[in-house]
Specification:
7-stranded parallel β-sheet
């Protein structure tokens, strides 16, 4: 828990001047680009990717009043970051009840999830676009005492203006992917200036700690991956029982959080296995449910029969694919399928959270592209809790083997559960690291 001593050259006058010049240009271009950005957001709104009722929040105009007293602002880009913040929010409310809490995210999907899962009294807003005017309005209204930025949201205007106004910024679960690290090394003065705005940096892994320190961060601590602190995903017990009855003992597997390219693979795997596994059902949960119509069309071109969750279509005996295109029900799908492929990993996306199914008695498969969870995936693979495959053919063989070999399947499930249990404690360490800063604000 001791802060790591910086292992980097000091930021010299030339570097600071270069960074200031870059940010001045960024700010000027952002101001000029205001109309174009509004047009871009309107196009997103028409595609269902912005909330039409809350568009003004994206320009820093608040949807609700600021509560009295000190305020902790938490920002996570999308669903994964927002979900990882939920246990932290619960602990902050328990241990520091004098603070109000605001959480911002940038996607409609995350906003819907927060509407379902945030405790009463916690405020959700859409993060403003990184235009000077929008950022000024946002910070002028909320003026948070503390800002907890999840993972790697380095918006220059937002961070620099928040620090200038006196918000104590903390990077929580900080991560720098290998590709990002290589890119930022070529612009070290710029990233060093942004990282200097954080009073404290909590890295998710020793590798991230090393990278963040090398890029210019001070006071870097590694409490572990905050996503390990999340409670198991919830599920409606009555709906779980209803679906179990509808499945009537059918063999099934889940392709979870799939990205473009992986949906078709799942359909082709189903075709390859259905003669081998009679009555097979493939549960398919796209990472972005708004892609459901596109996914359905692609699967139906393969001659597969699809039932769609959001349309209320039942799982009848002739259904091949159940398209799980709803928000906040992943816990349901993990409980229904003990054999799970975690997507974003057979295409070069970087993978999705492999710890979520580990907590719900799943034998877990993934592709080779797991940079977003590289350390966790490697540790789980070494523990026998996860098997990585490098192609659709290898995934087909693995799904078949896990259905046929109960001993292998149960061994992977037990190893995954054991690994998940060993991750306990990251939330305690995170709260311990935050305590001095929060106590300092309370004592002001």
């Amino acid at each position: 828990m001791k802060p790591r001593a910086p292992e980097r050259p000091a930021q010299g006058p030339l570097g600071r001047a270069l960074a200031c010049g870059v940010f001045a240009l960024y700010k000027a271009l952002g101001t000029l680009a205001g109309p174009a950005i509004r047009h871009y957001l309107n196009r997103r709104r028409k595609r269902g990717r912005e909330d039409p009722e809350r568009m003004e929040e994206r320009f820093g105009r608040p949807g609700v009043a600021r509560p009295a007293g000190p305020l902790i602002w938490i920002h996570g880009a999308s669903v994964g970051e927002a979900q990882s913040a939920l246990p932290l929010i619960e602990r902050l409310r328990r241990d520091w009840p004098g603070f109000s809490i605001l959480i911002t995210t940038g996607t409609v999907t995350s906003a819907r999830l927060m509407a379902k899962r945030l405790p009463e009294g916690v405020i959700h807003q859409f993060v403003p676009v990184d235009l000077p005017s929008a950022v000024n309005r946002f910070l002028g209204h909320w003026h948070p005492e503390v800002g907890l930025i999840i993972e790697s949201e380095f918006w220059p205007n937002l961070l620099r203006k928040a620090a200038w106004r006196g918000t104590r910024l903390v990077l929580v679960n900080g991560r720098i992917s290998p590709d990002s690290y290589r890119g930022w090394r070529r612009a070290r003065p710029v990233i060093a200036e942004l990282l200097s705005k954080f009073s404290l940096v909590l890295a998710r892994s020793p590798e991230d700690q090393e990278h963040l320190t090398a890029l210019g961060a001070d006071n870097v601590i590694c409490p572990g991956n905050l996503k390990a602190a999340a409670v198991p995903l919830s599920a409606d017990t009555a709906e779980l029982a209803r679906l179990e009855a509808a499945l009537d003992g059918r063999a099934r597997w889940l392709a979870a959080s799939t990205h473009p390219g992986e949906d078709r693979m799942a359909g082709e795997i189903h075709q390859a296995l259905r003669d081998h596994l009679p009555r097979l059902l493939t549960l398919l949960a796209p990472r972005h449910p708004n892609r459901a119509e596109e996914v359905r069309r692609e699967l139906e071109t393969l001659g597969l029969n699809v039932a769609q969750r959001s349309l209320g279509e039942p799982i009848e005996p002739g259904i091949d694919i159940y398209l799980a295109d709803t928000i906040g029900e992943m816990g349901l799908w993990y409980r229904l399928a003990t054999v799970v492929f975690v997507g974003g990993s057979l295409v070069p996306h970087g993978g999705q959270n492999v710890l979520e199914p580990a907590k719900l008695d799943c034998a877990i498969l993934s592709g080779p592209h797991t940079a977003n969870f590289a350390r966790m995936a490697a540790e789980m693979a070494a523990a026998g809790a996860l098997r990585q495959v490098d192609s659709a053919a290898a995934l087909t063989a693995a799904v078949a083997e896990l259905h046929e070999n109960a001993e292998l399947r149960n061994g992977m499930i037990a190893a995954a559960r054991s690994y998940a249990d060993t991750q306990a404690g990251v939330l305690d360490r995170t709260m311990e690291a935050l305590a001095p800063l929060l106590r300092e604000i309370v004592d002001l």
